[in-house]
Amino acid sequence: MKYIDDLEAEDLKGTRVLLRLDLNAPVINGEVTDAYRLERVVETVDYLRSKEAKVIIISHCEGKESKTLVPMWHYLNGYFPVQFCTTFFTPESIDKLLNLEEKGVLLFENLRLNPKEEENDLEFSKKLSAMADIYVNDAFSVSHRNHASIVGIPKFLPHFGGLIMRQEIEHLSRVFKPEHPFVFIIGGAKFETKLPLIKKYLEKADKVFVGGALANDIYKEKGFEVGTSLVSKGNSEIADIAKNPKIIVCSDVTVKNKTGTVEFKAADKVLENECIVDAGPETLVELKSLLQDAKTIVWNGPLGNYEIGFQDKTESLAEIIAEATKNGAESIVGGGDTIASINKLGINHKFSFISTGGGAMLDFLVNETLPGIEALKS
Questions:
Q1: How many CB atoms lie within 10 A of CB 22?
Q2: Which of 88, 126, 161, 215 places its Cα 20 to 30 Å from the Cα of 185?
Q3: Which residue range(s) make up the domain with 148?
Q4: 72 vs 25, 64, 192, 305, CA distance in Å?
Q5: Rounded to an integer, what distance in angstroms lies between the CA atom of residue 171 and that of residue 343?
């Protein structure tokens, strides 16, 4: 696979580069509230501008408040001048493309406003390709999707990976041959989608810690009461995972009952009217002990229900992993809520690598490639 920095400067000067980025960021009242992904793309855009390329950015967003890239456009304008185009394949867009100067940056509106993007429509890919001379995919976090802008465009243009793509592949690939002791930590929900990941790393890791709603399925399999907690519909493979000696779950949990009362209790003492919403304090003590001698730590997903305010145990885990990194462990972390907790604490620099991918990171760790990566290899 070729990367954009494999090209000579003269090959990029004046070249129209169709740059697929992931600018999907949370927005409240028209303002970006977590700019981690936006800040990561600056390096690639600066690189292309330094080579005097013409940069044409395409991206998507799927915010709850609105589905426009306008807030992201305003944010990026703080780093370099960016023009904005609201439409594709119109006189307005053609005019802006024709008048784009060397070092210029043009951002197009949300790709997913057109259903042909997610349908991986070949004609849509072809039309997007017509805007540029070469294609660069620097959207690792969306490269597990078979979408037009990810797998379609490389069929029509010379194609390269971006600087983020290179970093993601190089760092995440280290997990396939880790230093031991190796601890894999997985949180969040949707046990059935994360089952292949857990199975694979039960073979590779020394310990696999399962937290968040994922652990509820294991508690249930062990015969514990889980009350009104979120559980999967059932999977025959959970039984084997639950009794694997490498599996660790929270020994104590935070529960909330129907009156709103919150308390800590042992994982096997949950009542019928209670809901498990987070790990408990003893679990954090045990995690700290587990991780103090680790040489490789991979973490994706929160320990608690992050969206309704149960964030402190996830943040405590972030601090524990940061400390383990300081003591020599290689730490690779990812996932939206995971990154949000790290950003909130301002400790991004204390980890070996923070992936921009959530689902893409997990898919890559299972399959050791992604559809978007395979498209760049062809």
A1: 22
A2: 161
A3: 4-166+371-377
A4: 8, 15, 34, 27
A5: 20
Examine residue 361 and state whether it is found in any structural domain, yes or no.
no
Same domain, 49 and 142: yes
Full strand arrangement of the beta sheet holding 296-300: 247-249, 207-210, 182-186, 296-300, 330-334, 353-354
DSSP assigned state of 301: S
- Find out whether 213 and 329 touch, Cβ atoms under 8 Å: no
- The reply to whether 159 and 236 lie within a common domain is no
**Res. 9 pLDDT band, cuts 50 70 90:** confident
Count of domains observed in the chain: 2
**pTM of the entire predicted model:** 0.93
Is there a single domain that holds both residue 182 and residue 330?
yes
At 262, the amino acid letter reads: V
pLDDT of 13 reads 96
Mean pLDDT of 44-73: 94
d(CA 5, CA 25): 26
- pLDDT of 237 reads 82
- % of the chain at pLDDT higher than 70: 99
31 and 114: one domain? yes
